[in-house]
């Protein structure tokens, strides 16, 4: 709510949230896994319960700027996240993607991040479009703990 209550100028001055997140505790930043080159955290504004973002630590905007090591680890984290979320939530599928640049819909275009959105048969993902409402039955902290605890090696 603190983020929503700020005006756009205050948010812009706050710095990059994907550079700041790794400096916080996992609970504060909603981080579910830290790798060597990239990490995964819950989206603060999820489309569905368990909506993760996979980000490199390095502040780069484009996928084409990522090193081979970053690309490989983003892929590995994404695959593991799919397995963990499927096991913990019983989802039926996923939407996976990156919006590159503001014109393409990236909310934070300056720092590369990949979305991993769990989907269930009959989910209410259409709500944001037709009702300007999101149906999220679980608290982010609970979802973070469940996914982080189920991550291999946790």
Report on this structure.
There is one protein chain. This protein has 154 residues and is of the alpha+beta class. It has one domain: HIT-like (HIT family, subunit A), CATH 3.30.428. It has seven helices and five strands, in the order ααααβββαββαα. A five-stranded antiparallel beta sheet has the order 1-2-3-5-4. Strand 1 (31-34) and strand 2 form a beta hairpin. The longest helix has 22 residues, at 68-89. It is globular, with a radius of gyration of 15 Å. It starts with a helix and ends with a helix.
Q: Which terms summarize this structure?
A:
single chain; 154 residues; alpha+beta; HIT family, subunit A; five-stranded antiparallel β-sheet; 7 helices; 5 strands; 36% helix; globular; disordered N terminus; nucleotide binding; HIT-like_sf; HIT domain-containing protein; HIT-like
Topology:
Layout: H1 2-5, H2 8-13, H3 17-20, H4 26-29, E1 31-34, E2 38-42, E3 52-56, H5 68-89, E4 93-97, E5 114-119, H6 127-130, H7 140-150
Antiparallel strand pairs: 1-2, 2-3, 3-5, 4-5
Domain HIT: 17-126
Keywords: Nucleotide-binding
GO molecular function, one term: nucleotide binding
